[in-house]
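Our consortium's second objective concerns turning raw sequence data into structural hypotheses that experimental partners can test. To show how far this objective has progressed, the report includes one record in full. It was chosen at random from the queue rather than selected for favorable results. The single chain below, 432 residues long, was entered without modification.
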Amino acid sequence: MNPNDELTVAYVMSRFPKLTETFILAELEAMDRAGVRIELFPLLRQTGEPVQPAAVRWVERAHYLPFLSLPILRAQWWFLRDRQRRRRYLGAFFDMLGETWRSPNFFLGGLGIFPKVARMALDMRELGVEHVHCHFANHPALAGWLIHRLVGIPYSFTAHGSDLHVDRTMLPTKVDEAAFVATISHDNRSVIEATAGPSAQPKVTIIHCGVDPAAFAPVDRPAVGPLRIVAVGTLHEVKGQIHLIEACRILTERGVDVVCRFIGDGPDREALQARIDGYGLGDRVVLAGRMTTDAVVAELAGADVLVAASVPTKGGKREGIPVVLMEAMASGLPVVASRLSGIPELVADGVSGLLVPPGDAHALADALATLAEDPDLRRRLGAAGRDTVLDDFDVDRNAARLAERIRRASREPGDGAPTDPAANATIREPAA
């Protein structure tokens, strides 16, 4: 393949367009700017929440499939009616069951998506897809593995946070058969290599998520007035909002003038609001609800500090590197974050932000009090944070690295690709 030839890549993710997964949308936009032709195959269509303006054109061109339909049934028949194709189809199906039976989540999820993934595989071949890239190590990576098994298209996946930490069922197999594996932090890389074994090491590469620095330009912020805190993310235990509310209570009792806005919604909204009301913080702490990126940009511009109080949950969920930290730092906004997972790979304590132990509301309050008393420190941390994003977390630069890695995989068709001649059989007949 000539490096200048257009590359056709299918993207698979759990849901699209998901408001909180701006990193996927940003990568799609960057890959598009890099000249990669993208075919979008979400496993589910996200509904019931605002759609980012930039996502509209991707929604219009995405290949959404139901769990069952006449074209999906025809795809199953196409595989089953030919001996070689049937062997490939049944082999993938039963290998999936054998790999996932210990995990109800993966076992039932695999049964649910298998028919539509078989249809996707045929559609991808018809569209001339050369590579499948999946976001998340769980069901999307399972879909990539199935597509590879069914029609031989090479695949890769990006591992992020909870998709890697909660349930690593089948991870060694996914890694072994992938052309390569991308992950967003050294911490994640260690987890993958420890799970998949030494053979995984050459396949795993670190490619950070990124943001467009031009979309998050720094602004002048006043040095006087209350400390304006903002936190952005799903209202869920893993985000640690309860600890930030506690820190606001501690600061208020100390006489530190603070206001705090939580951007996002989620299952913990009622519990968080009850805690705010119980502390009598209703005039200082606000749950502002979901917002699109443009509105988040405005919130960052109107804040003095962003807090990401992430914590590991009892169920094993944990963040990788929250993209909102990159967005805030690109905005020249100082950040306070938990010393957890890959976050220290983005935030250098005392240099580009402040780090605190996860779940420690008193340490969080102390860090915020320090920033409240020292506007010059806020400016220094904000400037250093933007430099960090420009150097290592620019979405166009990192998407170009991913595109080059995919191109290299596409030039190596023998790297784990099946050799069954049925993979190259015509697929036009079931297309309906």
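The partners drew two points from this record. DSSP finds 16 helices and 14 strands in the chain. The radius of gyration is 23 Å. Both points have been shared with the crystallography group to help prioritize constructs.
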